[in-house]
């Protein structure tokens, strides 16, 4: 079954200072979310059971994943395994497009 969503279908949340989050589409198996970061904003260290794919739509970020650091620029991506402790710091204002499998019900 094909599903579509409109940008206005989902509200914008502010999970951290200088960060907004908006679901773009979701199903039980997968969810796509956009995060917008101001320069120097941080995504706090956390973990969850979902596998997460992150794509840097714009900006520059330093990711911390299970004690390792990864610097990503526009066009770069990475996979974060389920239950890995991770977070990021925004080095240049930008956007991340994240996909979670399965869906993050806590984002709805």
Structural class by SSE content? mainly beta
> Which series of helices and strands comes N to C?
EEEEEEEE
Query: How many E-type strands?
Result: 8
Please bin the fraction of helical residues.
under 10%
Strand proportion: over 45%
Relevant terms:
single chain, 108 residues, mainly beta, Jelly Rolls, 8 strands, globular
Give your account of this protein's structure:
This protein is 0% helix and 61% strand. The chain has 108 residues and is mainly β. The chain has a domain of 72 residues: Sandwich (Jelly Rolls), CATH 2.60.120.10. Strands 1, 2, 3, 4, 5, 6, 7 and 8 form an 8-stranded antiparallel sheet that branches. A hairpin with a 2-residue loop joins strand 1 and strand 2. The chain is globular and about 35 Å long.
């Amino acid at each position: 079954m094909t599903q579509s969503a409109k940008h206005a279908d989902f509200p914008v949340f502010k999970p951290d200072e200088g960060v907004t989050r908006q679901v773009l589409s979701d199903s039980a198996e997968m969810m796509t979310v956009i995060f917008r970061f101001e320069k120097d904003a941080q995504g706090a260290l956390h973990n969850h059971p979902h596998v997460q794919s992150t794509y840097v739509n714009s900006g520059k970020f330093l990711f911390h994943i299970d004690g390792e650091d990864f610097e990503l620029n526009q066009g770069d991506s990475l996979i974060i395994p389920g239950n890995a402790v991770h977070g990021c710091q925004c080095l240049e204002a930008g956007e991340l497009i994240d996909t979670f499998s399965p869906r993050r019900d806590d984002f709805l």
